[in-house]
Amino acid sequence: MFLRFLNPKTILEIIILWIVIYRIVVSLQGTKGAYLIRGVIVLIASYFIFQKLNLTVLSWLLTNFFAFYLIIIVVIFQPELREALIRLGQRHIFYKSLGKEEIEKILREIASAVNILSRKKIGALIAIKREMGLNDYIESGILINADLTSELLQNIFHPLAPLHDGGLIIDGAKIVAASCLFPHSENLNLEKTLGMRHRSGIGLSEHTDALVIIVSEENGHVSLAINGQLTGDLTTQDLLTILKGQLSK
Questions:
Q1: Residue among 138, 125, 108, 129 nearest 236 (CA)
Q2: What single DSSP character describes residue 122?
Q3: In angstroms, rounded to a whole number, what is the distance separating the alpha carbons of residues 126 and 35?
Q4: Which domains does the chain have, with CATH numbers?
Q5: How do 167-171 and 174-180 pair as beta strands?
Q6: pLDDT average, residue stretch 171-183
Q7: C-alpha dist (Å) from residue 34 to 73, 103, 146
Q8: What is the pLDDT of residue 147?
Q9: Global pTM?
Q10: What is the DSSP letter of 225?
Q11: In terms of CB atoms within 10 Å, which end of the chain has fewer, N or C?
Protein backbone atom coordinates (compact mmCIF):
# COMPACT_ATOMS: atom_id res chain seq x y z
CA MET A 1 0.00 0.00 0.00
CA PHE A 2 2.86 2.38 0.87
CA LEU A 3 4.39 1.89 -2.60
CA ARG A 4 1.36 3.59 -4.20
CA PHE A 5 2.56 6.92 -2.79
CA LEU A 6 6.10 6.59 -4.19
CA ASN A 7 5.55 8.61 -7.36
CA PRO A 8 8.30 10.90 -8.74
CA LYS A 9 6.85 13.96 -6.98
CA THR A 10 6.81 12.20 -3.59
CA ILE A 11 10.37 10.96 -4.08
CA LEU A 12 11.50 14.52 -4.93
CA GLU A 13 9.81 15.87 -1.79
CA ILE A 14 11.50 13.23 0.36
CA ILE A 15 14.90 14.08 -1.15
CA ILE A 16 14.42 17.82 -0.54
CA LEU A 17 13.28 17.20 3.05
CA TRP A 18 16.25 14.90 3.66
CA ILE A 19 18.70 17.52 2.35
CA VAL A 20 17.21 20.21 4.60
CA ILE A 21 17.32 17.93 7.66
CA TYR A 22 20.87 16.90 6.80
CA ARG A 23 22.03 20.53 6.54
CA ILE A 24 20.45 21.33 9.92
CA VAL A 25 22.19 18.35 11.55
CA VAL A 26 25.54 19.30 9.98
CA SER A 27 25.18 22.92 11.10
CA LEU A 28 24.57 21.77 14.69
CA GLN A 29 27.51 19.36 14.84
CA GLY A 30 30.06 20.36 17.42
CA THR A 31 27.53 22.56 19.24
CA LYS A 32 25.15 22.19 22.15
CA GLY A 33 22.48 21.69 19.52
CA ALA A 34 23.81 18.20 18.86
CA TYR A 35 22.31 17.17 22.20
CA LEU A 36 19.05 18.78 21.09
CA ILE A 37 18.90 16.43 18.10
CA ARG A 38 19.58 13.40 20.31
CA GLY A 39 16.85 14.43 22.72
CA VAL A 40 14.28 14.86 19.95
CA ILE A 41 15.18 11.46 18.47
CA VAL A 42 14.82 9.76 21.87
CA LEU A 43 11.42 11.39 22.48
CA ILE A 44 10.09 10.44 19.05
CA ALA A 45 11.34 6.86 19.35
CA SER A 46 9.83 6.55 22.83
CA TYR A 47 6.50 7.88 21.60
CA PHE A 48 6.25 5.27 18.83
CA ILE A 49 7.26 2.50 21.25
CA PHE A 50 4.58 3.56 23.72
CA GLN A 51 2.02 3.70 20.90
CA LYS A 52 3.01 0.25 19.69
CA LEU A 53 2.69 -1.18 23.20
CA ASN A 54 -0.62 0.65 23.67
CA LEU A 55 0.66 2.46 26.78
CA THR A 56 -1.90 5.25 26.67
CA VAL A 57 -0.90 7.04 29.88
CA LEU A 58 2.79 7.24 28.91
CA SER A 59 1.83 8.29 25.38
CA TRP A 60 -0.36 11.08 26.76
CA LEU A 61 2.36 12.27 29.15
CA LEU A 62 4.99 12.23 26.41
CA THR A 63 2.73 14.12 23.99
CA ASN A 64 2.19 16.91 26.53
CA PHE A 65 5.82 16.94 27.60
CA PHE A 66 6.95 17.22 23.98
CA ALA A 67 5.14 20.56 23.60
CA PHE A 68 6.87 21.82 26.76
CA TYR A 69 10.20 20.43 25.48
CA LEU A 70 9.86 22.46 22.26
CA ILE A 71 9.59 25.65 24.31
CA ILE A 72 12.74 24.69 26.26
CA ILE A 73 14.54 24.06 22.97
CA VAL A 74 13.67 27.50 21.62
CA VAL A 75 14.84 29.23 24.82
CA ILE A 76 18.06 27.30 25.52
CA PHE A 77 19.25 26.65 21.98
CA GLN A 78 18.15 29.91 20.38
CA PRO A 79 21.66 30.85 19.10
CA GLU A 80 22.19 27.43 17.49
CA LEU A 81 18.71 27.37 15.95
CA ARG A 82 19.19 30.88 14.58
CA GLU A 83 22.52 29.90 13.05
CA ALA A 84 20.97 26.80 11.44
CA LEU A 85 18.13 28.87 9.94
CA ILE A 86 20.58 31.48 8.68
CA ARG A 87 22.57 28.78 6.91
CA LEU A 88 19.40 27.40 5.33
CA GLY A 89 18.64 30.86 3.97
CA GLN A 90 22.09 31.32 2.49
CA ARG A 91 22.90 30.42 -1.09
CA HIS A 92 25.53 27.91 -0.06
CA ILE A 93 22.98 25.39 1.26
CA PHE A 94 24.82 22.76 -0.80
CA TYR A 95 28.21 24.09 0.30
CA LYS A 96 30.93 21.46 0.54
CA SER A 97 33.95 21.67 2.80
CA LEU A 98 37.07 23.24 1.40
CA GLY A 99 39.46 20.86 -0.33
CA LYS A 100 42.73 19.79 1.27
CA GLU A 101 44.85 21.96 -1.03
CA GLU A 102 42.70 25.03 -0.38
CA ILE A 103 42.85 24.50 3.39
CA GLU A 104 46.64 24.17 3.26
CA LYS A 105 46.89 27.37 1.19
CA ILE A 106 44.76 29.26 3.73
CA LEU A 107 46.81 27.94 6.65
CA ARG A 108 50.08 28.91 4.94
CA GLU A 109 48.79 32.47 4.56
CA ILE A 110 47.81 32.56 8.24
CA ALA A 111 51.09 31.01 9.40
CA SER A 112 53.11 33.43 7.26
CA ALA A 113 51.33 36.44 8.78
CA VAL A 114 51.62 35.07 12.32
CA ASN A 115 55.34 34.43 11.84
CA ILE A 116 55.98 38.02 10.73
CA LEU A 117 53.76 39.49 13.46
CA SER A 118 55.60 37.36 16.00
CA ARG A 119 59.05 38.49 14.86
CA LYS A 120 57.93 42.13 14.98
CA LYS A 121 56.21 41.59 18.36
CA ILE A 122 52.89 42.86 17.06
CA GLY A 123 49.94 41.60 19.09
CA ALA A 124 47.22 39.66 17.26
CA LEU A 125 44.05 37.73 18.06
CA ILE A 126 42.78 35.50 15.23
CA ALA A 127 39.79 33.15 15.40
CA ILE A 128 39.28 30.45 12.78
CA LYS A 129 35.61 29.44 12.57
CA ARG A 130 34.73 25.76 12.47
CA GLU A 131 31.22 24.34 12.97
CA MET A 132 29.77 26.70 15.57
CA GLY A 133 28.44 30.05 14.43
CA LEU A 134 30.28 33.23 15.45
CA ASN A 135 27.65 35.74 14.32
CA ASP A 136 27.31 37.41 17.72
CA TYR A 137 31.05 38.13 17.77
CA ILE A 138 31.13 39.14 14.10
CA GLU A 139 28.39 41.69 14.76
CA SER A 140 30.46 43.21 17.56
CA GLY A 141 33.23 44.17 15.12
CA ILE A 142 33.70 45.70 11.68
CA LEU A 143 32.67 43.61 8.67
CA ILE A 144 35.41 43.09 6.09
CA ASN A 145 34.48 40.01 4.03
CA ALA A 146 37.76 40.04 2.09
CA ASP A 147 39.92 37.29 0.63
CA LEU A 148 42.39 36.02 3.19
CA THR A 149 46.01 36.95 2.52
CA SER A 150 49.07 37.21 4.72
CA GLU A 151 49.55 40.85 3.76
CA LEU A 152 46.01 41.84 4.74
CA LEU A 153 46.32 40.09 8.10
CA GLN A 154 49.55 41.98 8.80
CA ASN A 155 48.01 45.31 7.79
CA ILE A 156 44.96 44.84 10.01
CA PHE A 157 47.09 44.20 13.11
CA HIS A 158 49.59 46.97 12.44
CA PRO A 159 49.68 49.12 15.61
CA LEU A 160 48.66 52.23 13.64
CA ALA A 161 45.78 50.53 11.82
CA PRO A 162 42.29 51.48 13.05
CA LEU A 163 41.17 47.82 13.38
CA HIS A 164 44.18 46.39 15.22
CA ASP A 165 42.40 46.24 18.59
CA GLY A 166 40.13 43.27 19.25
CA GLY A 167 39.84 39.94 17.48
CA LEU A 168 39.72 38.96 13.83
CA ILE A 169 37.46 36.20 12.52
CA ILE A 170 38.26 33.93 9.58
CA ASP A 171 35.62 31.77 7.90
CA GLY A 172 36.95 29.55 5.15
CA ALA A 173 39.00 31.63 2.73
CA LYS A 174 37.56 34.93 3.96
CA ILE A 175 38.47 37.44 6.63
CA VAL A 176 34.93 38.12 7.81
CA ALA A 177 35.40 40.80 10.46
CA ALA A 178 37.98 42.57 12.61
CA SER A 179 38.04 44.55 15.84
CA CYS A 180 35.60 42.02 17.31
CA LEU A 181 34.88 41.62 21.02
CA PHE A 182 35.58 38.14 22.40
CA PRO A 183 34.37 36.97 25.82
CA HIS A 184 36.92 36.79 28.61
CA SER A 185 37.71 33.37 30.03
CA GLU A 186 35.75 32.25 33.08
CA ASN A 187 38.59 29.97 34.20
CA LEU A 188 39.83 31.18 37.60
CA ASN A 189 42.88 28.91 37.40
CA LEU A 190 44.57 30.72 34.53
CA GLU A 191 48.05 32.12 35.10
CA LYS A 192 47.91 35.60 36.56
CA THR A 193 50.50 36.75 34.02
CA LEU A 194 48.16 36.22 31.06
CA GLY A 195 46.96 39.46 29.52
CA MET A 196 43.53 40.40 28.21
CA ARG A 197 44.32 39.25 24.66
CA HIS A 198 45.10 35.73 25.86
CA ARG A 199 42.11 35.65 28.20
CA SER A 200 39.82 36.73 25.35
CA GLY A 201 41.27 34.06 23.07
CA ILE A 202 40.76 31.36 25.69
CA GLY A 203 37.29 32.74 26.43
CA LEU A 204 36.14 32.42 22.82
CA SER A 205 37.47 28.86 22.68
CA GLU A 206 35.47 28.07 25.83
CA HIS A 207 32.22 29.30 24.30
CA THR A 208 32.74 27.99 20.75
CA ASP A 209 34.77 25.41 18.82
CA ALA A 210 36.83 28.10 17.08
CA LEU A 211 40.62 27.80 16.88
CA VAL A 212 42.08 30.99 18.34
CA ILE A 213 45.62 32.15 17.62
CA ILE A 214 47.20 34.69 19.96
CA VAL A 215 50.41 36.61 19.30
CA SER A 216 51.89 38.36 22.33
CA GLU A 217 53.04 41.92 21.79
CA GLU A 218 55.34 41.64 24.83
CA ASN A 219 57.56 38.78 23.65
CA GLY A 220 56.17 37.73 20.26
CA HIS A 221 55.24 34.24 21.52
CA VAL A 222 52.53 32.45 19.56
CA SER A 223 49.77 30.55 21.40
CA LEU A 224 46.74 28.56 20.30
CA ALA A 225 43.52 28.18 22.29
CA ILE A 226 41.29 25.14 21.67
CA ASN A 227 38.31 24.20 23.84
CA GLY A 228 39.51 26.41 26.66
CA GLN A 229 43.05 24.98 26.65
CA LEU A 230 46.02 27.19 25.78
CA THR A 231 49.14 25.84 24.09
CA GLY A 232 51.94 28.42 24.15
CA ASP A 233 55.35 29.20 22.67
CA LEU A 234 54.57 27.56 19.31
CA THR A 235 56.85 27.66 16.30
CA THR A 236 55.36 28.34 12.86
CA GLN A 237 55.62 24.64 12.01
CA ASP A 238 54.01 23.65 15.32
CA LEU A 239 51.11 25.98 14.60
CA LEU A 240 50.66 24.64 11.06
CA THR A 241 50.72 21.02 12.24
CA ILE A 242 48.10 21.57 14.95
CA LEU A 243 45.81 23.61 12.70
CA LYS A 244 45.95 21.00 9.93
CA GLY A 245 45.15 18.27 12.42
CA GLN A 246 42.19 20.18 13.86
CA LEU A 247 40.71 21.23 10.52
CA SER A 248 41.01 17.77 8.96
CA LYS A 249 38.73 16.19 11.61
A1: 108
A2: -
A3: 28
A4: 2-89 (no CATH), 100-247 (3.40.1700.10)
A5: antiparallel
A6: 95
A7: 12, 25, 31
A8: 95
A9: 0.65
A10: E
A11: N
